[in-house]
Amino acid sequence: MATQPGQDRIIGVDIGGTGIKGALVDLKEGKLAASRVRLSTPHPATPSAVAKTVAEVLGQIDAEGPVGLTLPAVVRGGTVETASNIDHEWIGTDAVDLFSRTTGRLVAVVNDADAAGLAEVHFGAGRSVSGVIALITLGTGIGSAVVVDGTLVPNTELGHLPLHHGDAEDWAAESIREHDDLSWKEYARRLQAYLELVQRLLWPQLIIIGGGVSASAHKYLPKIELRTPVVPAQLLNDAGIIGAAMFAASVEFATKA
Known about the structure:
Elements: E1 9-15, E2 19-26, E3 31-32, E4 37-40, H1 47-59, E5 67-71, E6 75-76, E7 79-80, H2 95-103, E8 107-111, H3 112-123, E9 132-138, E10 142-148, E11 151-153, E12 162-163, E13 166-167, H4 169-172, H5 174-179, H6 184-202, E14 206-210, E15 230-232, H7 239-256
Parallel strand pairs: 1-5, 5-8, 9-14, 14-15
Antiparallel strand pairs: 1-2, 2-3, 2-4, 6-7, 9-10, 10-11, 12-13
């Protein structure tokens, strides 16, 4: 029999470029309450194809109730506004309506970095820190989340800050390190320049580095010197799922209020 989530257990789904991962999340503990389900992201990753795959993921999760979903895009009022690293057909799509119709559930949709930021601030590397916290995710591009005393400032897009006559992510993303075959010392120099820019803009209490390259943080973070503490993320691949569920819980509670 399916589990009936209450306010403390909600499904989160993290939509990525290669995989769509979902699980029931324990919001009291900030961890997955059951094993993850993962299906490959369809190609092309059009809205209808992704929504269908999300429905298949949910069909394999033994739980009912609302769902939080991430997208690698700016999501404003439920509508997708950008498509830097996803199919351009997403631009202008009402993602909340699409996923609601396809899955038959109440859904909330949030930027993927914002979801990871919520999770890290409440249950990960930023758990005991107050004030402004910036999460920077390094991957194909650079994602960001800014959280102030536990409240998300959505869609900050700090990867598009101007740096070296272009977007910062074209200089310091993990994909650029791989493409340019940079040593960790060379990559640290690039990150130093970028993180100094983030520091001058926000003066946060803490900067958290997320994305797959955070697992190698010991190879480059010690080479970076800032007046702001910089630490690796702790929740790794579960951050997006946990943050998506947290976001859905906040939307559900706001609606009830």
